[in-house]
Amino acid sequence: MQHETHAEHDHTAHGDHTAHSDHSAHQHHGAGTGKVSWSMAAQATLHCLTGCAIGEILGMVIGTALGWGNMPTMITAIVLAFFFGYALTLRSVTKAGVDFKTAFKVALAADTLSIAVMELIDNGVIALWPDAMDATLADALFWGALAASLALAFLVTTPVNKWMIGRGKGHAVVHRYHH
Fold this sequence. Notes:
By secondary structure, the protein is an all-alpha fold. It is about 65% helix and about 0% strand.
């Protein structure tokens, strides 16, 4: 379902809104009202986690398979996590009929803090987990530490997303363009 922007919305059907002429304050799904459900925050975090996990796993697999050192592998994983995180949002927002330039701005506004927190937690866990940085793709430690780090990143990032959505930021920006 395509959602019209505030500028395209026919407000005459809602009666006289002279006292409500600033529609930029109007939010959807509780966004910006401070009343955001944990379910909504978890969904936004899962969306972000999907892109981050794709990039993180791909980066770790590439770096580990090619025998790169820890730093180049981690940098590759982080760059790819941001790339795929933004790409998923770009895909959904452009699918709603938004031009690429606007969709890119929406993706930056919606995902940057969420991805950054997720990557900080995820990579921090991997870096601090004994021997995780030296594990290979064939080691259970590689996959176990990666899964645990992503799960912890989800748990830490969900309250961040709840806070941002409650202030009309983060994934609340995406919801202005589609449901």
